[in-house]
Specification:
Blueprint lengths: L12 E3 L2 E3 L6 E5 L7 E6 L3 H18 L4 H17 L1 H12 L3 H21 L7 E3 L5 E9 L2 E5 L7 H12 L3 E5 L5 H13 L7 E3 L4 H10 L5 E5 L2 H14 L2 E5 L4 E5 L5 H13 L9 E7 H17 L18 H17 L2 E4 L18 E4 L6 H4 L6 E7 L2 H9 L6 E5 L3 H10 L4 E4 L29 H5 E9 L14
Parallel strand pairs: 7-8, 7-10, 8-9, 10-11, 12-13, 12-17, 13-16, 15-16, 17-18
Antiparallel strand pairs: 1-2, 3-4, 5-6, 6-19, 14-15
The protein binds 2-aminohexanedioic acid.
């Protein structure tokens, strides 16, 4: 991302059904991480006025949208799913170009959005409430879900289509309207996504797009008095600022933040399977997933053999142009992210961890321009080291040795995060104890820490989140308010707690 005033704006904000430049006329560029000299596009560098216009459009659209029956709102999502499927390849290519994940993974990202649209389209025929008995005669009691209002959606670059989808689809299915601020590293993906919604027939004003920087457009959205809810995925630092602002403004706020996910490998595990899982979990998306396997907690009896094979396989992973399907790892998203990963490698070395492979940029000349980094394995890592505690968000994994399941669980739980976790074992008793005792929102048995499916709750404990769960049915709890309804058909005044006394 380069911050400069561009001569012209090629792409727009999408407000009340119109593509518009920023009111200030300024813009920013999105650069391809594989070839940063290549400009993917210029996008409005929006400010408060643009956010005001978008929130006002969303507020107006809310009045009509909330009254459309939910099954019809769901039907729109079915059309969105169909159009996303048609555009899957184009969106995936744009994604690989703009944020650098390999094409095959980019297709998976769009597929996750399609799955989400289909899942929530069905939810339009449910949105169930409860009925219950009243304590008074001739009185009916029930609960209904109501939309919250205008929702601000602030999403990251690492899943630039899937994450906006799993926020925006349940939001609009529930009758809310949205102002969406994509990450400044993936504005073209954000725009492509919103274009698909519009072209599929989502009415003007229901989903508005405001491009820009977090501290400008993002901050204006979070502080806007007419925004009732913020849904954010990103770093703990930003999430904490957003939570503070939402606390002050008494807004509903759903946060999904960092992880320091670990895969446990017990001595009775299928080591081939555990190895495959570790490679995919640690180095898929170059480790730039909230769910990435950034720690491997391996039993002493198998650690050396496991690490040796891991290193051999990691060295064989092909790094290069994400648009070339032969490559397993694309570049990191930007220069700052690359510098962060390099800094953590230096920290790991200083702390006395043993670098077993990677730790540097690839030497191939053809890759010199891009923000590439080699798959990196640190061994002899102690739980107290920073590389075992802090989220790196790159292709770096830390191996910690344990001697028992108890020690494995204690080690896995010993960070401030709790998103995803995994255990490889053939012992059903160990598996169930792990399921019970691992402090995480997600636990996989004999699978890697990545690969969550859209119909199950997604989110984490401790500093990973603030108690909400996205995706699945639980997302409805974020995007609706409960209303309790009492219907008295007795024809007289009845007084709860007074007419009836136990
Ligand atoms: C994220 O990294 O923010 O489970 C989301 C997974 C994906 C979602 C990751 N389905 O890895």
């Amino acid at each position: 991302m380069a911050r400069r005033a561009a001569r012209r704006t090629e792409s727009g904000n999408f407000i009340a059904g119109h593509w518009l430049p920023a009111r200030s006329g300024s813009s920013f560029e999105s650069l391809s991480p594989a070839r940063p000299a290549k400009v993917v596009g210029a996008f409005p560098r929006s400010g408060r006025e643009d956010v005001d216009a978008a929130v006002s459009a969303a507020g107006k659209a809310f009045r009509a949208w909330r009254e459309i029956p939910a099954p019809q709102r769901g039907a729109k999502l079915r059309e969105v799913a169909a159009l996303l499927r048609e555009r899957k390849e184009a969106l995936a290519r744009l994604m690989a170009l703009e944020m650098g994940k390999p094409l095959v993974e980019a297709r998976g990202d769009v597929q996750e959005a399609i799955d989400c649209a289909e899942y929530y389209s069905g939810e339009g025929r449910r949105l169930f409430g409860q009925t219950t008995t009243s304590e008074l005669p001739d009185k009916f009691a029930m609960t209904v879900r109501c939309p919250v209002g205008v929702c601000g959606i602030v999403s990251p670059w690492n899943f630039p289509v899937a994450i906006p989808a799993w926020k925006i689809f349940p939001a609009i299915l529930c009758g809310n309207t949205v102002v969406f601020k994509p990450a400044e590293d993936s504005p073209a993906c954000g725009e492509g996504f919103v274009r698909a919604l519009h072209d599929a027939g989502v009415p003007a004003g229901v989903v508005n797009l405001v491009q820009g920087l977090g501290e400008e457009a993002g901050a204006a959205l979070v502080h806007h008095p007419d925004v009732r809810l913020i849904s954010f995925t990103g770093s703990c630092e930003t999430g904490s600022l957003i939570a503070g602002a939402c606390g002050q403004g008494l807004k509903r706020c759903s946060l999904e933040m960092g992880g320091k996910n670990a895969q446990i490998v017990m001595d009775d595990a299928d080591l081939n399977l555990a190895l495959e899982g570790a490679l995919w979990g640690a180095f898929g998306t170059s480790g730039q997933r909230c769910t990435a396997t950034s720690r491997l907690i391996v039993h002493k009896k198998v650690r050396e053999a496991f690490v040796r094979r891991l290193v051999t396989q990691a060295r064989k992973l092909r790094i290069g142009d994400p648009l070339d399907s032969m490559n397993h790892l694309g570049p990191l998203v930007n220069a700052a992210q690359l510098a962060r990963v390099e800094r953590y490698v230096a920290i790991g070395r200083e702390e006395g961890a043993r670098l077993r492979c990677g730790g540097k940029r690839p030497s191939a000349k053809a890759l010199a321009q891009g923000h590439y980094f080699e798959p990196t394995v640190f061994d002899a890592v102690k739980p107290s080291m920073r590389i075992a505690q802090e989220e790196i968000f790159g292709p770096v994994t830390a191996v910690l040795e344990i001697r028992s399941l108890e020690e494995a669980i204690e080690t896995l739980n010993g960070t401030s995060y709790g998103l995803s976790s995994s255990i490889y074992t053939r012992d059903v008793n160990k598996a169930f104890r792990a399921i019970r005792d691992l402090e995480a929102g997600i636990t996989y048995v004999n699978g890697p820490t990545i690969g969550a499916e859209v119909h199950l709750p997604f989110g984490g404990v401790k500093q990973t989140g603030n108690g909400h769960r996205e995706a699945g049915e639980t997302a409805l709890e974020i995007f609706t308010e409960w209303k309790s309804v009492y219907v008295d058909y007795s024809g007289r005044l009845q007084k709860a707690q007074i007419d009836v006394q136990a």
